[in-house]
Amino acid sequence: MAGRKSVCCGASALVVTLAVLFILMTVVSVSLIILMVNCITDTGPEPSLPPSLQPYLIGVGRADCTGPPAEVPLMGYANPQQNAAGIHTRLYSRAFIIDDGRRRVVFVTADVGMISQRLRLEIIQALQVKYGNMYRQDNVVLSGTHTHSGPGGYFQYTLFMMSSKGYIKSSIEPLVNGIVKSIDIAHRNMKPGRIYMNKGHLDDSSLNRSPQSYLNNPEGERHRYKQNTDKQVLVLKFTDLDGDGIGMLSWFAVHAVSMNYTNRMVSSDNMGYASYLLEQDKNVGALPGQGHFVAGFSSSNLGDVSPNTRGPRCANTGLPCDYLNSSCPVGGTKMCQASGPGDDMFDSTRIIGHNIYRKAKELYVDAVEEVTGFLHSAHQWVNMTDVTVQINSTHMVSTCKPALGYSFAAGTTDGGGDLNFTQGAVEGDPFWDGIRDALLGKPSNQTQECHRPKPILFSTGEMNWPLPWHPQIVDVQIITIGSVAVVAVPGEITTMSGRRLREAVKQELESEGTFRDSEVVIAGLSNMYTHYITTYEEYQVQRYEGASTIYGPHTLSAYLLKYRGLARAIAQGRESDLPAGPQPPFFPDQNLFSLLPAASVDRKPTNSSFGDVLQQVYPIYRQGDVVSVSFVAGNPRHAGDIRDKTFVTVEIHDNRTDTWEVIYTDASWETRFHWLRGSDRRSNVTVEWHIPLLTPSGSYRIKHFGSYKQMKGLRPVITPYEGTSGVFEVTASFYYQ
What we know:
- 26% of the residues lie in helices and 28% in strands.
- It is of the alpha+beta class and 737 residues long.
């Protein structure tokens, strides 16, 4: 027994020893495998090029964001007489969502003057209610096309509220809801797809409106570029896996001011018309705003770039304006007006918009360079009143509290001011200084010194009643889609400023070796609005753009510092380590003010009804003619939320089925909807249809839809109505052959 026990125990010891050795070898082997994997995969920041066999998930969406087309100020020219009174074209938000399986980014371009801080904050809030943390400050870019013909009233800072009758709920709500809806649609439509990039040049569609300032940039820097505006058009083409197009996103630097300061109709201007044309091409047979294909045309470094290619002349004499200050001997800056290539503003909008569309379409068709790579997004809030920059080994400079200079009041050659201010002012005026000091307070010595050589007209950074006049906290943001970097700039950045910013971002992205041959594009008017961003040299000239660079002469240097930091973080894969920065304020609604009174009740002529025809159509028209019909109408504000609706239809009669088919709405380029407020609270509406030359012969009619308000006792009641023109014929026009 003793022997058996000894053998048994010896065998047991051997088994145990072997088991322990096996376990140790297994642990060592696993550890070595893990170390080898780590050595293979831990190469610093993640590579920029994943396998092309892994397509992106892509979603595109478009939604109507048109606000009230009556009595609300149009945002852009700050012209107190320019209140909305109809619709030229509707306004749309176009959203593009891209997902690489790890991260997601959203880019929105909306037919709006600019994105305000308030608008962005409300949109992000709405998205987070719906989607949690999927769509955030860092991965959502909101950019405005910079049309100057969209309703204002969506700001929370006093200066902007003063110029647009305050904070107008009926104005901001369709923007928030429309932009969010476009993202909703893109979110629902996401599917595997591919992205292709192309770029080219577009001439004869832009002009530098402040060449005096541009020439103040260093000569060596200017000689690196052939022209004083950026002519590049960059296109991203989105397809599904079968190669069928689902959308296009394009950037081109030009102001959307072909529709000038005399216009009173809501309009998406030249960039919106480019979108309209490409979407009509791709969505065959669909009405505007319908169809699966989405074409977004986004703003870029347009700060000193005008579409008014004939340049400025004195409107009262036809002679050239004074070169230095853009004024006329009689009429001052108001008479110095630049004009576009067309016979009128509508024709100029058509020509410039068509040029942009044609070039983008050409690039879209020929796009074969596939965009592949991971997605990144980086965002910070920055206190732009307190940024210190080391510009060389011995000098530090700082930004300033916001202030606007004298030349801000002069306006531009796209829309001059009404008073006797001129561009290029580097000295103040005792008369205006006295009025400013008495009404608003004198700028502090520190602010005056910080902004030199700008003579300060409004020291907005020192004005806080009833709310701050200008923002202090500003968004800076970059998203990358493979090798394409989109730099979201919160203002109107000039040509040379944009070039410096693109160069700085590209340098930082490629500094770590994770990005190669990166393409950097500026998305202007993004996330919030801080007026202009000029170079230090352009600022010294103090034309309109320099006078409107609100954080002082070193504004661009501060932005270069901050965007370099974002790009470096992306290159190193350390976006999550970036401090968020100080959050901007979100002022309660009760602290905001509105100067827009409620729309009054509607009245009509005796023995008439709303929708009755006041001026009837003719019985017959030729192709190329303009049909015009007027109706007894209510105030368009009484229609409420007008998104996805129409005030106008043009309809053709189908003889086979004896039915009427809608072929145009108020979103169509071919229609114009004019509202006129008469005396005694009466209104009328005039609808125009500009008959295209290829319109089929047949029977047509025009319908108008609206609502009117009346009082029933003490209670206001809104009632819808409609009116219909007589039937008219359209025939072939021998005149135009």
